[in-house]
Amino acid sequence: MLNYVIKRLLQGIVSIVGASAIIFVISRMDDPTLLLLPIDATPEMVEHLRKRLGLDLPLLQQYLIFIGNAVQGDFGNSYRWEQPALPLILDRLPATLELAIAGLVFALALSIPFGVLSAVYRDSWFDNFAKLFAMLGQAMPNFWVGLLLILFVSVQLGWLPAFGREGFDSLIMPAIALGWYPVAAMTRMLRSTMLDVLDSDHVRMARAIGVPNRVVVWRYALRNAAVPLVTMMGIYFANMLSGAFVVEVIFAWPGMGRMVVEALFARDFPLVQVGVLFSAILFVVVNLLVDLSYGVLDPRIRHD
Known about the structure:
Blueprint: H1 2-27, H2 33-36, H3 43-53, H4 59-71, H5 85-120, H6 125-139, H7 142-156, H8 169-198, H9 201-208, H10 213-243, H11 245-250, H12 256-265, H13 269-297
Helix pairs in contact: 1-13, 5-6, 5-8, 5-10, 5-12, 5-13, 6-8, 7-8, 8-10, 10-13, 12-13
């Protein structure tokens, strides 16, 4: 197990370094001095600012300096706010974590009963409803769901606030918009897995010896079917952390993703780099935890 963890950590470090190199190169395809200086700035002013920001150095040298400073916890100062980039991202990280966790809770609260019951009552009206719901969920992207929620729930009905982060009410619609697609995907996957498990020999044996059906379904069958569900849950949670920026922009949610989008339009390279690095780190950590959880859910799985 220790060797497996070390191997995955090394792979994660390589992934993080690769992500940092890619975003470093992409973010420097444009010159931020054109946005930081007024239109009537002289060439001398532009050159002075480039030297002050270190943009006059070769690209490889800039990247090595960035990596050396990042190892020491220094990710540079934001061009836009003129403050250290790392604290700015850390201040927005709790809002993104709150939104991602709420979206995941919403997705699990619907997908688990929908997936299990549609498998138990195969070809029933509920099964048909769950499949239709899953198809609708996969056909509607989160930004479209968010706009519909704002239009009907906030504008037409006035039940919930349309933007901001001011209590539980303002979290409901962003969480639904973010978790809408995972509900559909996890429902379909769990239904398929539950059908296989319910037809297995050990489930038939449990029913034959008189174990109550609810215990067979919710304790034994669901636990065996939960391994692929945990895999998908980890993938979608990591995607929510790194891809919540669309929902954050629509609902004016003060999260990390929204700040990175604003920094990207402002050519604020240090802030963009820190945001992407944190997203990569969170993605690696979540996937490592998912892999380690397999042995808990299914003792037959062991990491060599």
